[in-house]
Write a structure and sequence with these properties.
The protein is about 35% helix and about 15% strand. It has an eight-stranded parallel β-barrel, surrounded by six helices. Strands 16-17-18 form a three-stranded parallel β-sheet, with helices on one face. A hairpin with a 3-residue loop joins strand 1 and strand 2. Helix 1 runs parallel beside helix 2, helix 3 runs parallel beside helix 6 and helix 14 runs parallel beside helix 16. It is globular.
Length: about 475
């Protein structure tokens, strides 16, 4: 069996009464077309989350929904529709989603969004500051009344979540430079009213949100905060690659924020780093090491007693087991890795970590969500399309020949064999992988090489007959 990952598979308590069966969570991701025309969860969205519940995750955090119907008026035709727009329809689908997730022993949090501020054209911020990616535009400023309206919608939507059966909510978000992050950071908040000034006053929104939710939903209803521990910026639209000359949030300030959030009543911190201005820390590419946020989360763990879950290339189970054992974190939030393989956790439980399909940290999921309106995964074609392209057994098995042992040929052979066909794969070179060898040549592209090894292992397990040219010349490779 090898490593049994006893710490990762131990239960953990969130708040007063909620217990997760293990330390793995599906991190909230902006997957695009999550909601329908009235804000209800789509069938395909439900299937996406259910597949990860079947895959063994202890906690599933849904992608953020914007809740404000007034201050940042939603685009009800082309944009994200808040749950308050059609609460009856939203509740019907939400109840179905939660009930089915619970069937597999997983818990689920709804992530409720405070707003975007400088991150979106036309939206107001705490103070007049440069718009993200367009510093020529200066934002408008939220009034105190508008802030109170937004807080009210957060509380209202949390109550809707509880009534639909959700196990808790996660506040979106004091990370990635979103509006609540802007409220908390001195660089973006120069207000002189109750929402600005000292650090504690800049956290007034975060305090009022959790106090209001607890008043409406009860003290036992868990509330988590999605939080960034370091900004990695030298200024607006100016990244700091190595984190020096920090103009945003430092880890020292993050520790103080964590202490205050615990005092306010938050039950859990879900942490990462970076903001849009330094996006390679938000969605780290392959050249940033796995577990790169652990040295930061360890500082928070030393300062608070509430659970801390860490995100950011946490798809190395051995590293994560050691991190939980050494109190660097309490749990693991997997975003892209859970998209690449929804059965990540189940495969570890089976003692077969080599069966986990590797995430290659390419960022295609986020790019497609932003540019096409729906997340797609480079290594998992079924990701976010489980209801459309689910694997089914062939009614009449056939003899299938696949020509070419590159990544496309291996994927075609794998799918055909998984459906029950007798498959033969022909490759003119003396090894499988094709362009994966070129793509994985650099030392930091280990995930590309791991993907090729995963394909070879899958083909072997599925009984695919592979014929290669054992006398291939270099020109053929």
């Amino acid at each position: 069996m090898g490593n049994t990952y006893e710490h990762l598979f131990s239960p953990i308590k969130i708040g007063n009464r909620l217990t997760l069966k293990n330390r793995f969570s599906v991190a909230a991701m902006g997957t695009g077309d999550m909601g329908g025309t009235r804000g209800e969860y789509r069938d395909n969205t439900i299937e996406y989350y259910l597949e990860r519940a079947r895959g063994g995750f202890g906690l599933i955090v849904l992608g953020s929904v914007i809740v404000d119907m007034e201050t940042d008026k939603p685009n009800l035709i082309d944009g994200v529709v808040p749950p308050s727009y059609a609460p009856g329809k939203w509740r019907e689908r939400a109840c179905r989603l939660v009930e089915r997730i619970h069937y597999y022993g997983a818990k689920t949090f709804m992530q409720i969004g405070f707003g975007h501020g400088r991150m979106r054209p036309g939206q107001k911020a705490p103070s007049p500051i440069p718009r993200y990616a367009d510093p020529s535009e200066i934002t408008g400023v939220l009034t105190a009344e508008e802030i109170e309206t937004k807080i009210g919608y957060m509380i209202k939507t949390a109550k809707m979540a509880k009534e639909a059966g959700f196990d808790g909510v996660e506040v979106h978000a004091m990370h990635w430079g979103y509006l609540l992050d802007q409220m908390a950071m001195e660089i973006s908040n120069q207000r002189d009213d109750e929402y600005g000034g000292t650090l504690e006053k800049r956290l007034t929104c975060a305090r009022k949100i959790v106090e209001g939710i607890k008043a409406e939903c009860g003290q036992d209803f868990p509330v988590a905060m999605r939080m960034g521990m370091k900004s990695y910026i030298k200024g607006f639209n100016q990244a700091s690659i190595d984190g020096t000359e920090e103009a945003g949030r430092t880890i020292e300030e993050a520790v103080e924020i964590a202490k205050l959030l615990e005092r306010f009543g938050y039950d859990m911190l879900d942490v990462n780093s970076g903001i849009y201005d330094s996006f390679y820390y938000c969605v780290a590419p392959a050249y940033i090491p796995k577990g790169y946020n652990l040295y930061l989360s360890k500082r928070l763990k030393e300062a608070v007693s509430i659970p801390v879950f860490t995100a950011g290339r946490m798809d190395d189970p051995n590293l994560c087991e050691e991190a939980v054992r050494n109190n660097e974190t309490d749990g693991v939030a997997l975003g892209r890795a859970s998209l690449a393989d929804p059965y990540y956790v189940k495969k570890l439980q089976m003692g077969r970590p080599e069966k986990i399909r590797p995430c290659i940290a390419c960022g295609n999921c986020m790019a497609s969500a932003f540019n096409k309106g729906s997340a797609t995964c480079t290594v998992n074609p079924q990701g976010m399309k489980e209801g459309l392209y689910g694997m089914t057994k062939a009614v009449q098995p056939k003899h299938v020949v696949v020509v070419g042992g590159g990544v496309c040929g291996m994927e075609a052979a794998r799918n055909a064999a998984a459906r029950g066909h007798e498959v033969e794969l022909l490759e003119r070179a003396d090894k499988l992988g094709g362009r994966l060898f070129d793509a994985g040549v650099h030392s930091f592209k280990g995930s590309i090489r791991a993907l090729n090894e995963w394909y070879i292992g899958e083909l072997k397990d599925l009984g695919v007959r592979v014929r290669m040219n054992t006398e291939a010349t270099p020109e053929l490779l």
